[in-house]
Write a sequence for this structure.
């Protein structure tokens, strides 16, 4: 994943393609094969062929009840019955995988049309190193416009600072009318994009010597074992309740870390659901970066009964681990879900999220975190960290709402 001799582009390109509003609307929804429907029946080798175009490969996979989570050499692939999320870093050619994804959905899942497509990314650190359509935002937009005639492109935040780029198509543009009229299921994604990690936070992600296999450990399993050990040492395993989490982690030599996790959660109607989170770390000085992404809806400030963190607590836990000098946070939520929150609590989810972001980051507080190094007495290091907000933007798109905030250390 990483090279010690050249800059590595940590900020990811995030492509999400929906082929139906919900899993219940895929053609084989009522006739599962081996418990799977839709895109989850696509053979792994087919996804690997698509990923070869993108210039990355599969390291491991965990299969859940609703999601298959592929850990990649450059980030992650999540496959649902009705949609796919491809997140890739470095100089990968993310968008070049899109035509293949469309072909795969048609040929293997009888899903010939796109319901909705999203493409987003943070501003690159080293745009001059990108390849193909990723050299400039206008080229990425032109590539997507050639496939989706009515897409819309946005820049959120300071053009001459940290900003977030989004391309979105309207739902149901190219699907049959009877499907297009089905309302989109509530959708929620939180991203925490962190730069300039502190030296103490970066240090655990470097490995001076390659790990040595034990008597009963195949060499191919060592990066995963080291990734799991590191996840526990840094309390990544405690971000969400361990009993609700299936974690797949990988440590790269000489440095770097990636993990996917599947999460069990329940909503207000008591239904059990499955979501994900994913973390990717580029620890090298000069271009250090860590990202966190999760699609499990969280209360802004009140923890749920099953010990799931609220949004404010989640932000603190993640930021305490990585100690960024600068960070951007986004909450991208379906408008229906956002407005329902307003009817219940008096505020939209976007407005409540902005308050949670500020409360989590701007107040001075004791900070307890472990860098993974020995302290002698077993105690976590104590320090004070506080941020100031440099940007706050709420945005309404067609069917989706966005909360965007940027912070930097005081």
């Amino acid at each position: 994943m990483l090279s010690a001799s050249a800059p590595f582009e940590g900020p990811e390109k995030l492509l999400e393609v929906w082929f139906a509003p919900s899993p219940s609307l895929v053609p084989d929804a009522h006739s599962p094969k081996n418990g799977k429907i839709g895109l989850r029946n696509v053979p792994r080798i087919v996804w690997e062929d698509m990923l070869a175009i993108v210039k990355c490969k599969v390291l491991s996979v965990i299969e859940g009840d609703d999601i298959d989570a592929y850990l990649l050499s450059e980030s992650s692939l999540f496959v649902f019955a009705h949609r796919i999320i491809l997140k890739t870093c470095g100089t990968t050619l993310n968008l070049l995988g899109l035509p293949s994804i469309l072909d795969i959905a048609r040929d293997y899942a009888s899903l010939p049309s796109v319901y909705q497509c999203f493409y987003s990314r943070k501003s690159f650190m080293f745009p001059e190193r990108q390849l193909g359509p990723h050299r400039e935002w206008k080229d990425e937009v032109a590539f997507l416009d050639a496939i989706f005639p009515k897409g819309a492109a946005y820049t959120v935040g300071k053009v001459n600072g940290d900003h977030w780029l989004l391309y979105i198509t309207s739902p149901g543009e190219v699907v049959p009318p009877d499907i297009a009229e089905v309302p989109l299921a509530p959708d929620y994604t939180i991203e925490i994009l962190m730069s300039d990690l502190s030296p103490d936070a970066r240090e655990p992600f470097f490995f001076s010597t390659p790990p040595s296999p034990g008597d009963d450990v195949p060499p191919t399993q060592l990066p995963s074992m080291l990734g799991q050990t590191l996840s526990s040492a840094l309390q990544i395993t405690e971000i969400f309740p361990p009993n609700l989490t299936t974690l797949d982690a990988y440590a790269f030599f000489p440095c770097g870390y990636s993990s996917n996790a599947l999460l069990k959660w329940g909503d207000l109607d008591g239904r059990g659901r499955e979501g994900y989170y994913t973390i990717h770390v580029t620890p090298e000085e000069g271009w250090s970066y860590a990202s966190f992404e999760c699609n499990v809806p969280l209360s802004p400030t009140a923890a749920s009964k099953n010990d799931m963190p609220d949004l404010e607590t989640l932000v603190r836990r993640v930021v305490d681990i990585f100690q960024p000098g600068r960070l951007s946070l986004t909450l991208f939520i379906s408008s229906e879900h956002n407005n329902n929150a307003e009817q219940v609590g008096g505020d939209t989810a976007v407005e409540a999220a902005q308050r949670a972001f500020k409360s989590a980051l701007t107040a001075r507080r004791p900070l307890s975190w472990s860098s993974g190094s020995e302290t002698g007495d077993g105690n976590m290091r104590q320090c004070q960290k506080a941020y100031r907000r440099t940007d706050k933007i709420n945005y309404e798109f067609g069917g989706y709402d966005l909360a965007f905030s940027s912070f930097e250390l005081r």
Q: What stands out?
A: Residues 114 and 323 are 39 Å apart (CA to CA). DSSP finds nine helices and 18 strands in the chain.
